[in-house]
Amino acid sequence: MKYLILIGDGMADHAQTSIGGKTPLEAANKPDMDYIASRGTIGRSVNCPAPLAPGSDTAILSIFGCDPAKYYFGRAPLEAAAQGITVPPGALAFRCNMASISTEPEAFGLHTMKSHSAGGIDGAASRKLVTDLFANPEFASFAEKCGVSVYPTDSYRHICVCDKPLETDYGKLKFYPPHDNLGAALKDILPNDKILTALMEQSYTFLSRHPINLERETRGELPANCIWFWASGTSAKLPDFYERYGKRGSVISAVPLCHGIGILQGLKVISVPGATGELDTNYGGKAEAALKAFDEGDDFICLHVEAPDECTHNSDLPGKIQAIENIDSLVLAPLLDGFKTRGEDFRLLLISDHYTLSENGQHDATPVPYVIYSNNNEQISNIRDDGLPIRYTERDFSGAPLTEDGCKLIERLFKP
Ligand SMILES: [Zn+2]
Description:
Layout: E1 2-8, H1 24-27, H2 31-39, E2 41-45, H3 56-63, H4 68-71, H5 75-82, E3 92-101, E4 113-115, H6 123-135, H7 137-146, E5 148-151, E6 157-162, H8 194-207, H9 211-218, E7 226-233, H10 241-245, E8 249-252, H11 256-263, E9 268-270, H12 283-295, E10 300-305, H13 307-313, H14 317-342, E11 346-351, E12 355-356, E13 363-364, E14 368-374, E15 402-403, H15 409-414
Parallel strand pairs: 1-10, 1-11, 2-15, 8-9, 8-10
Antiparallel strand pairs: 2-14, 3-4, 3-6, 3-7, 5-6, 11-14, 12-13
Helix pairs in contact: 5-11, 7-8, 12-14, 13-14
The protein binds zinc ion.
């Protein structure tokens, strides 16, 4: 038996007037998701238990059976693991986004947050900018004095580690996710620590004059002119996946968070060329990689697609709907065909890790619709009041059984 978890990041959403009062899942043409929803075991799951903030970090920990109330140490240490960075005990890791802030000549605090990703800046430019910044003698000596070092990645998501005390106690630090605060004045969303704020301000001085950004501006692109710290955490440890479930497996995703959560549980990470975490990601390549990994002996695969969430943060509703349709036709359909042609018994869990709301681009903790489907579920078993088969939508699942402990869902996937 093969087991697969397919996560469409942030697919779930509210109804939008611009698409006739439908949600993106309702508006999307997704025959395979609807097919398994009408035949599988359906429900709603609480993946982001209060008081933790809703987001991929807490939600995906839940989906892997790691209770976030017990295993959540902040987002950055999970992402750091993806880069093979071990956060020393007592040190602090935090995300370092290449963000874009307004450029009017005024006090730093009066600038506003324009983009959490500098408009989806390409990895090479992002890596070059942050490397040059931390190599700049003035900035480098200040960063070193503060004990802050950077681990560049090939995306707008870099990692920093601080191994010296800050002005504010680690436990009292307050950070603001940039994608949740688009348009805000910096003075209202800077971290409550003078050292970190000074580093961010100094980064603006250097980055706003960097040739890469000057060129971006001439091309009408957003400059990556400010490093933005958030999602801090201390060293993370997760339970071993094989010890818990007796399954060997891998994670397929474009985002470091998923890689880190996999690595910390002893799972393999499969990188797929062209997997960007954006609407243009390599959907088909991910499905192929999953089937190949199953052929090579894996029992379990978690396949994560970031695109719907990223589109929502970029206020791109048509893109979100397209991303959902791509997951259906370029990921789920070939997987179902692949299992069928192999004559393989399988069971899959389709889930949106959390809601991401088009009205404000923010994550939300509303219980998410999920379906567990296996090749034995051939009969339509889920019928709506109007007699039609249930579709994979928020509305059709509104009366479905609720799983208060989302971290228990995976046990149902593996139940004999
Ligand atoms: Zn997510």
